[in-house]
Specification:
This protein has about 500 residues and is α+β, with helices and mostly antiparallel strands. It contains 14 helices and 16 strands. One of its GO terms (molecular function) is protein histidine kinase activity.
Length: about 500
């Protein structure tokens, strides 16, 4: 947009804080290469357009905006003389895209000193060569440092997740190995029993009844009820007494297995009625092996299912073999993240899931959202641990207008008011040296705000800290969204 050209007065230009130390010759060059323009209320330049000019406000009011989704979000409003915006990185040349990183409007007639980007670049390099080199090094050094530490942050998170996943996988895997070894032993004993049967110890009719009882017992194992510890203890006593009364050796050893399988005294009476007294001890031994093999196979099935569930959760968390941008259920992402981090959360922190399951799926980058959840859960766990290690982590979802809320609430000591405004700044951390890079929340903010057009903020008092992520229920074309790693902050 062009404004009304006005005379450039070196004396007035020198009253702006950027130019107050310049010589008369330098001020003269500014006025000869630049110009003063007066803009009526409205837009001055638009985000994403080629950055052709550097603007310094002489008088008036400016408002800076950033494009978030389909809306312009105001990030700054000021009437302070000398504030500047526009082609601020012109001195970097073609090393970075030379486009406006925000949009500027004026709300009243406003005068600017306007310097073409090429002149601004030349003047910076001629008048302040050392400063230009320092600024260039600071710009790229900060980018490289942020990228390197960001990669380190992800590697640390990956290491923590890998350790937790290994721990979680070890338990069911070890259980399956133990159950398999025991099952092999029981099957060997059953083969021995078959040898006894083959020797003619049982007649055909008794053998038929035993096989029928075995089948019915296997069906009962699959339908075994869950008993309280007191109920299980009472039933074990009853079964032990019955087995002792009927001359079954080591009834105390068999009774717990029968109770776990859901067998009771009435069932044993039915077995006793189906076989003669001489056959009963062998029948009980045969049933014991049957029950044990069924229970062991159930244990192996449960363990392998748990392993499969963990692997599925890991795939869900990492989003392997999935489109990077798709419609997702945030509850699936939250569940997979909490499962992956369960080893780090530990037993002393209670996890409460307060989900609104009626919420619709939303278009998102699920792998990036999982990174956000990881960072926020990690911070919550650190906060609770710093307060003694016992507390509660509540993950809540809800609908707020046309946005979906995901809230992480912890019972830690809270965030002091004097640092609350800095927690999203790159490299700022409240963790001890070596335990935090200060990029977790910065990365999370960029993913939520820049890439998903949402918002991320915190509310905190001692014992109640809440990080709230608000995501739009609908989103524009993902190709139009900026990369969170390269998006610039508003100036």
């Amino acid at each position: 947009m062009s404004g009304q050209l006005m005379p450039c007065n070196p004396t007035e230009i020198s009253s702006l804080f950027l130019f107050e130390k310049l010589s008369p010759e330098q001020l003269g060059r500014l006025c000869s290469e630049g110009r003063v323009e007066r803009f009526e209320p409205g837009p001055v330049y638009t985000e994403g357009d080629p950055a052709t000019c550097f603007y310094v406000m002489v008088e008036g009011t400016v408002v800076l905006y950033r494009r978030v989704g389909g809306d312009d979000v105001e990030v700054s409003r000021t009437s302070q003389r000398g504030v500047y915006a526009g082609a601020m990185q012109a001195y970097l040349g073609d090393q970075v895209p030379q486009v406006y990183n925000n949009s500027m409007r004026v709300t009243e007639p406003t005068r600017f000193f306007v310097l073409p980007a090429e002149s601004f670049s030349n003047i910076m390099r001629e008048w302040f060569p050392m400063a230009a080199h320092l600024l260039e090094g600071l710009f790229f050094g900060s980018k490289n440092t942020q990228r390197a530490i960001g990669q380190r942050e992800r590697l640390l998170a990956l290491g923590s997740l890998s350790a937790g996943l290994t721990h979680e996988l070890n338990n069911p895997a070890a259980a399956a190995v133990r159950a398999t070894a025991t099952l092999r032993e029981r099957v060997a004993k059953m083969r021995h029993k078959l040898a006894v049967i083959a020797s003619g110890a049982y007649d055909a009719e008794a053998l038929t009844r035993l096989i029928e009882i075995q089948e019915r017992t296997a069906e009962l194992v699959a339908k075994a009820p869950t008993l309280s510890p007191l109920e299980a203890s009472d039933r074990e006593d009853d079964l032990t007494d019955w087995l002792d009364d009927h001359g079954i050796q080591e009834g105390w050893r068999i009774a717990p297995t029968f109770v776990q399988a859901g067998l009771d005294v009435d069932w044993l009476e039915q077995v006793a009625a189906a076989v003669d007294e001489d056959t009963l001890p062998g029948a009980m031994g045969w049933l014991n092996y049957t029950v044990e093999t069924e229970l062991l196979m159930d244990e192996i099935d449960d363990s392998t299912n748990r392993i499969s569930h963990l692997v599925d959760a890991a795939k869900q968390y990492s989003q392997l073999d999935r489109a990077p941008y798709r419609v997702v259920d945030v509850h699936e992402l939250l569940d997979s993240t909490l499962l992956m981090l369960s080893g780090k959360i530990g037993q002393r922190i209670e996890v409460v899931k307060d989900y609104d399951r009626a919420l619709p799926a939303i278009p998102a980058y699920p792998a990036e959202l999982n990174q956000v959840w990881t960072n926020l859960v990690d911070n919550a766990v650190f906060a609770v641990n710093s307060a003694g290690g016992e507390g509660t982590l509540t993950v809540r979802t809800a609908r707020e207008g046309d946005r979906l809320l995901v809230e992480f609430r912890d019972t830690g000591p809270g965030i002091p008011p004097d640092v609350r405004g800095r927690i999203f700044d790159p490299f700022f951390t409240t963790k001890p040296v070596g335990e935090g890079t200060g990029l977790g929340l910065d990365i999370s903010w960029r993913i939520v705000v820049n890439k998903h057009h949402g918002s991320l903020h915190v509310e905190s008092v001692p014992g109640d800290t809440r990080f709230q992520v608000l995501l739009p229920l609908t989103a524009p074309d993902p190709e139009s969204t900026p990369d969170p790693e390269t998006a610039e902050e508003p100036v």
